[in-house]
């Protein structure tokens, strides 16, 4: 809340923009409080969540204390994190709806079909699109993109785009000069920072 207040948009009092901004802030207040309560509960369970990250309600299997999320990252609804081993998410990462991050599976070469677990790492500025699945031991590099519905079973190099099941890399690479803050696209936050984060609007 302190960050949003310090960086809030400040239109001229009484202007049309001022009324619009405060109407949006009022409408978004419940969602902002809801997000704060979710994060407070997750932190109480041992999860590490960095400054200004947006984490919606999602399914956790295993121990929340094995999950670490950096600053200014966005985790959408209906995400599943199976934290039977560590899940390390960097800063300014986007994890969209329906993503599954699975640190454990069964060994196909094991006659006893025993479970094994491996840490998953997702580096800064990575984007995990809707309904993608990240399998045990995967390291998603900085700025990498995992396409919607992709199933990733091996490491993804920085700034690489992967799609499909199993995921394969495209020839096209993502731009390296990344300088955006994904949480500011979230409606409860945009209601506060507004035009201060983009082109100044006329008041």
TrEMBL record:
It comes from the Bacteria. The keyword Transferase applies. PROSITE patterns: HEXAPEP_TRANSFERASES. Its EC number is 2.3.1.79. InterPro entries: Hexapep, Hexapep_transf_CS, Hexapeptide_acetyltransf, Trimer_LpxA-like_sf. Gene3D superfamilies: Hexapeptide repeat proteins (2.160.10.10). One of its GO terms (cellular component) is cytosol. This is Maltose O-acetyltransferase. It comes from Paraburkholderia bannensis. The lineage of its organism: Bacteria, Pseudomonadati, Pseudomonadota, Betaproteobacteria, Burkholderiales.
